[in-house]
Amino acid sequence: METDFNYMNIWPQLLAESENIAAETLAKIVDQREVTDWVNNTKSFLAENAVIFGLRLAGAIAIYYVGRWVTQILLSLVQAALLRAKVDLMIVRFTRNVLNAVLTGMIVIAALGQLGVHMNTMTATIAAAGFAIGLALQGSLSNIASGILLVIFKPFRVGDRVDAGGTSGKVEEIHLFTTILRTPDNAQVVVPNGQVTSGVITNYSAFHQRRIDLVVGCGYADDLLAVKKFLLQLLQEHPKVLADPEPLVAVAELADSSVNFNVRPWVATADYAIVRSELLESIKLGFDKQGFTIPFPSQDLYVQTPPTLTVTAATQKAA
């Protein structure tokens, strides 16, 4: 009787445990069904929206490339109009660069809008990014401001030969951030606009005429008037030396080893380098032909010997 009693007490406990196991198994089945439903719903969503997204992506790409094509046409029209109005070439190129940057930014924003990016969110993001970038790129913003100043005040133009930003060369182009120079040995130098405006700018092409300054020395034994006449005649006979302003030959100083002349002819700015070299060559050859000397620094050394002592017989006897 006791055994039957114990068995009957265990049976309800086994039944409860079986119900718990069944409940857990059912919960797992339900979870699996939820996962399966989520996967199926995701697949359905992707299948339904793939075509829409593809069309939006195709539209965004079309907006970008068509926009770039239209931008190039507009830039060409603006450049042609400015050139017809005889606007300075430097301003034309600077305006084209600025318009290109602005229009490209508008095209990118339009393409992102086609993809479904909210403009309000994008505007806030661009504003925050612009503020951060502005703090990080203060030097670059200074270069932009300097570029605008170069275009407004025009200390030089495209094609001018200048010394600017520690570099000498021909101005090729002015961008938002930099100025492009070409050196005489045909190397391209990119100079930040801020560096250009912060230093001294020497524009060798600002005027149509330039003066060549030479210092020519002759020896003190040479005929001073003959040397001066030769130098004047040399300048007057050179085909690229201008008659107005009149060339100048004048005594500059009586130096330690030579009599120095200031030789100052005027030439067209484009002829400056070649005329200077030709004059130096002609002066040397002419001095050799005329028998004039081109002295170099020298010093005269005088050596004096002490007087010899005369030994007399009396001196010898005393010794």
For this entry, give a set of tags.
disordered N terminus, 59% helix, elongated, 15% strand, 319 residues, Alpha-Beta Plaits, SH3 type barrels, Helix Hairpins, alpha+beta, 3 domains, five-stranded antiparallel sheet
Summarize this structure briefly.
This protein is α+β, with helices and mostly antiparallel strands and 319 residues long. The chain contains eight helices and ten strands.
The assembly state of the depicted protein chains is single chain
| Domains, number | 3
Content of β-strand:
15-25%
Q: Give the proportion of residues in helices.
A: 55-70%
Bulk shape: elongated
- Physical arrangement of strands within the biggest beta sheet: 4-3-2-1-5
Helix tally? 8
CATH class of the largest domain: Mainly Alpha
Low-confidence segments? 1-5
**Structural class category:** alpha+beta
- Largest β sheet strand count, sense and barrel closure: 5 strands, antiparallel
Distance between the termini: 171 Å
Q: Which H/E pattern describes the elements?
A: HHHHEEEEHEEEHEEEHH
Write the CATH fold name of the largest domain.
Helix Hairpins
Average pLDDT works out at: 80
Number of strands: 10
CATH architecture of the largest domain: Orthogonal Bundle
Radius of gyration: 46 Å
